[in-house]
Amino acid sequence: MLRQLGVLTLVVTALAVGPAALGDSGSPNYSSKLTSVAPSVKGVTVRVVDGDDALELRNTSGLNVMVPGYENEPYLRFLVNGRVEVNVNSPARYLNEERYAAVTVPETASAEAKPKWELLAQGGSYTWHEHRVHWMSTDQPPRVKASGGAELQKVFDWVVPLSVGGKRVKASGTLWWVPSGQLERSDALIAAAVKKEAKEEEAAEAASTEKSTTKPAAEESSAPVAAPAQAAADSGSPVLWIVIAVLVVALAAAGAYVLRLRRGNDDGPSAEQGPSAEEVW
User: Fold this and answer.
1) Each residue of 33-44: pLDDT tens digit?
2) CA 274 to each of CA 85, 265, 270, 271, 277: distance values in angstroms, whole numbers, following the listed order
3) Which residues contact 53 (CB under 8 A, 6 or more apart)?
4) What is the DSSP string of 43-80?
5) Which of 104, 79, 82 is nearest to 94 (CA)?
């Protein structure tokens, strides 16, 4: 009787943590950090389990929560009554059984297949292996390999989409590579790296804002001011050439008038003398 109870306890525990979590574990050199659940929903909590291996979601929000699979098909659902169910026709149901998805997906499972739900757990909480939060290869990432694995490296940012009460929510995080000799202080190293990255982004944004606000003023002060006539001449406007022609004619007429006055003074014509030919013209 006691042996049967022990077996029953083991089965219940397996359902609670999920099939992938039993035979799989995270890599010691990888650390996946949850950074946000946005927008935040009271009663929905998410955390990374076993370094970079799995996600745990707990739902006490009073809303149904859906976790889509890798092809956006229905995969897990956390119901308001505390039931956690899996769609056995979801490819993710089988891909999550092995860390690198080295499994054969049944032909009955596809993103287009009608969901078929089976009970996984009670109590609104469940942990499952999640490929989106870890490196899907036994080879090291390029930057890690380039450094010989001796430096803390950011591998990638990740997002696991959720649907809470029909509204889209994102669980976001970052995967890090931690050198073997620094595993014990990985949290402190990652926190310092995140802080440094935030400061660099803030400085870059401030520099970009300053550049965009000062550039017009600098251009205005250094740009030569074109004379109106020159600017108009450069434009090639027909009106401009008419104005210039009128000015030329007026200047010519004024010059002729001045010339006549000078000749009249030199010749001394009498008051009765009629106008000369030049004056008639």
Assistant:
1) 999 999 999 999
2) 121, 15, 9, 8, 9
3) 21, 24, 25, 26, 99, 129, 130, 134
4) TEEEEEETTTTEEEEEE-SSS-EEEE-TTS-EEEEE-T
5) 104
Residue 30 backbone zone (phi > 0: left; psi -120 to 50: alpha; other: beta): beta
Task: Give the predicted TM-score (pTM) of the model.
Answer: 0.67
Domain range list for the chain? 2-185, 228-267
More confident residue, 17 or 46: 46
At 122-150, the pLDDT tens digits run: 999 999 999 999 999 999 999 999 999 99
Distance CA 24, CA 167 (A): 32
Residue type at position 208:
S
Q: Are 54 and 18 in contact (CB under 8 A)?
A: yes
Dihedral pair phi/psi, residue 162, rounded to 5° = -135, 160
Using alpha carbons, list the distances in angstroms from residue 141 to 86, 128, 176, 184: 32, 24, 10, 22
Give bridge partners of residue 59 from the DSSP assignment: 44
Can the peptide bond before residue 216 be classed as cis, meaning omega within 30 degrees of 0? no
User: How many Å is the Cα radius of gyration of the chain?
Assistant: 41
Do residues 51 and 152 touch, judged by C-beta distance below 8 A? no
pLDDT digits (tens, 9 = 90+) for 172-225: 999 999 999 999 999 999 999 999 999 999 899 888 888 877 665 555 444 444
Closest CA to 62 of 39, 84, 78: 78
Q: Which residues contact 97 (CB under 8 A, 6 or more apart)?
A: 19, 20, 103, 129
Higher-pLDDT residue of 240 and 120 is 120
